[in-house]
Specification:
By secondary structure, this protein is of the alpha+beta class. The protein is built from nine helices and 23 strands. A hairpin with a 2-residue loop joins strand 20 and strand 21. Helix 1 runs antiparallel to helix 5 and helix 1 packs parallel to helix 8. The two termini are about 45 Å apart.
């Protein structure tokens, strides 16, 4: 029954990858989810699509709330070069000047707006960027044979700027490369103050006019260059986070682009291969059933996952020997039959796994299997003998596999005694939910068919009571216990990837024939923004 691990694993991984793909604000949103049609994908755009991410306009508006922090970082990190020049002045001759040590102080942004342009780009409008530039002005007179600058004063420049960004992304080597070169600065105010003197003087009047034009060009060039650099840094930061999330040792999910992303007025959508790579093997997807009509626009974020991607992940986990679970001592606990189980509990009561019913027949069967030893001196091992077959249906994820169960008695100073070995064909329909930062796996329908049965209590295999008891125990208690344990283990795995730090609101996992949709709303991921600003800028 450990096969149910696979469906849940990819769902959760894609949620996290999706969060990473979201980024932290509107620029980040653009970086990961949009691209220009620069890669060659062939005439059938969706056939190789295993994973789709759709972010709607409400999500873009939420992420845009913190765009100001990135723009501020771009201004502060811009390296402004020294500005030098000279100009002929009546009576004074040629006056040479230099602006050096230019820095940005007291930066504030009044408003930021984001707009999705149909089949084009993401337009970001930053209104009233107020910035105070400080530095040193050196000036003097230029002679015919030499230049001597002999006066220096500190200066301040008050500015009010509007910033317009049209961010387009290109696809290079199946990955996103940002282009923020469509960057425009409009100056509403650019006032020069010398040595803190707020009153106009002849020196200020002399330099203001011919310095201002040069300064505007330098500010535009350096600020826009820095914004483009921040965009590239953001891209690398988020792609690294996403790649790390969808990789666990030798199992990797390929999230490179499968087709050209789409920008609509109400959403952004990116299509990814979703191919599972394991060591030197990989899967191939050429018959995806994805269509844009399968997703709506009522939630902030959607993930569409193909049955092929889930099945490939299950196959990789099987090949990697991960579909194994050991239950010992107190872990062999269930709720007695007839008492409804809660999907939020990972253990099912206080009675041992083999004590569902306090009947004489049951007691005899248990005594014969365990030969009178304590449950604490026993271990049950469950593992898949064949690659799980996964089928996504409206009622849930249907998993089929040949599964082995082995119960061993641990005797002091002796080799473990295998008291029970079974192989059975198991079919389980599992529904997954995510609540209170926990993954919950609930089996809603199960069936088993015993193929091999070996028991020291019934060497001939002619006692139907033991097999009947074991079959009933597996259906009523064993499968729910194992799926619950897997849910807890996957929750720990996802939280190790910091999924629990995200504010995920009302997530839904919806299965359909051939695919699953994860849809949710979310709060602003402040921790990702802070992490980026601390590490990258």
């Amino acid at each position: 029954v450990t096969w149910s691990h696979q469906r849940s694993l990819l769902c959760l991984r894609m949620c996290w990858a999706g969060r990473m793909m979201l980024g932290t604000f509107s620029i980040l949103l653009v970086l990961f989810h949009t691209a220009a049609a620069a890669c060659e994908f062939g005439p059938f755009p969706y056939r190789a699509t295993g994973i789709v991410c759709r972010m709607t306009k409400p999500a873009a508006l939420l992420l845009n709330q913190e765009t100001a922090q990135v723009i501020q970082a771009a201004f502060r990190n811009a390296k402004f070069p020294n500005i030098t020049g000279e100009r002929s002045m009546r009576l004074l001759g040629r006056v040479a000047y230099g602006l050096s040590n230019i820095q940005v102080n007291d930066l504030s942004i009044e408003k930021s707006e984001v707009e999705l342009k149909e089949d084009n780009a993401i337009h970001i409008s930053i209104k009233n960027v107020s910035a105070l530039f400080k530095g040193t002005l050196t000036y003097g007179y230029a002679g015919a044979w030499f230049l001597q600058l002999f006066h220096s004063v500190d200066f301040e420049i008050e500015s009010s700027i509007d910033l317009q960004l049209d961010i387009n992304l290109m696809c290079q080597k199946q990955q996103v490369a940002p282009d923020a070169s469509d960057c425009y600065l409009t100056f509403h105010k650019l006032t020069l103050h010398l040595q803190g003197d707020k009153q106009p003087g002849w020196l200020k009047q002399l330099f203001t006019d011919f310095i201002s034009f040069t300064l505007k060009l330098v500010l535009k060039r350096e600020v826009c260059k820095e914004i483009n650099a921040v965009a590239q840094t953001l891209t690398n930061f988020i792609l690294d986070l996403a790649a790390n999330f969808v990789q666990d040792k030798d199992i990797i999910v390929d999230i490179s682009l499968a087709s050209d992303p789409v920008v609509k007025a109400n959403y952004i959508e990116s299509h990814h291969k979703g191919i599972v790579l394991y060591k030197n093997t990989s899967s191939v997807l050429s018959d995806s059933v994805f269509s844009p009509s399968l997703l709506t626009e009522s939630r902030m974020l959607y993930f569409w996952l193909s049955e092929h991607s889930l099945s490939s992940l299950a196959a990789a986990a099987f090949l990697d020997g991960r579909l194994v679970l050991n239950l010992r001592g107190e872990k062999l606990q269930v709720i007695p039959r007839g008492v409804p189980s809660s999907p939020h509990t990972s253990h099912f009561g206080e009675k041992e796994l083999f004590e569902m019913e306090d009947t004489e027949a049951q007691q005899k069967a248990v005594q014969r299997i365990f030969q009178g030893t304590s449950y604490n001196d026993s271990v049950a091992k469950v593992w898949s003998l064949t690659q799980p077959q996964i089928s996504l249906q409206p009622e849930g994820t249907v998993v089929r596999s040949l599964v082995a169960v082995e119960v061993s008695i641990l005797l002091a100073g002796e080799e473990p005694l295998v008291s029970l070995y079974m192989e059975k064909e198991v079919t389980v329909t599992v529904q997954a939910t995510y609540a209170e930062k926990k993954l919950i796996l609930q089996p809603v329908d199960s069936s088993i068919e015993i193929k091999v049965f070996k028991c020291t209590a019934d060497p001939s295999g002619e006692d139907p009571s033991i097999q009947s008891f074991l079959q009933n125990m597996i259906l009523v208690a064993g499968i729910p216990e194992v799926t619950s344990s897997i849910g807890s283990a996957l929750t720990s795995l996802m939280n190790s990837k910091r999924l629990d730090l995200f504010d995920i609101i009302n997530p839904e996992i919806i299965t359909r024939k051939g695919y699953v949709i994860v849809q949710l709303d979310f709060g602003f991921p402040s921790h990702v923004l802070l992490n980026f600003l601390e590490k990258s800028l």
